[in-house]
Amino acid sequence: MKKYPRRNPHYKAILIIFAVLLTVFGISHSPPHVSSDSNNNTRPSIASLKQQIQNITGGNIRISANAENGLIRFMGTDPSHAIPIHEASGLKHNPELAARNFLSEYGQLFGINNQSHELEMIESNTVDHGRSLARFQQVYVDVPILGGEVIVQVSAENSIISTSGEILHDISLNVTPTISSS
Length: 182
Known about the structure:
alpha+beta; six-stranded antiparallel sheet
């Protein structure tokens, strides 16, 4: 497990500079859309995923989205309306597994296409009453993306209470070096 430094207080300025550099070097950055996975199955739309979350929580959810791209930055509910993760139920409390299962199903809302390739676990901490925080770093070809973090709050029953963070989505960048080491 790699340790990454805590977020720099100037991370927004650094993130803007990073985004400009990525643009200069040919990044493709497009808004979220319905897409197909490798099995040619159509993924649910952002609107249908939001509706599913609303239905599961009985409308008891707070959602904050990025005004520029519509991706969710924060989603949270009270513990009595937490989002159950069926694949993680019955298992010993495992915040990482519960968070990864949630992000596999709902990560598209945050701009995550494939959580297993895009997110690396940084740390997991138990806070109180069995609740835990699972903190992930976004990576692209094993390189950490500055400012790309997701934190998932997991109940003692492996249900999701909240998720927050921002992701640089749909990265398409040639990482082959063009300058020799000499």
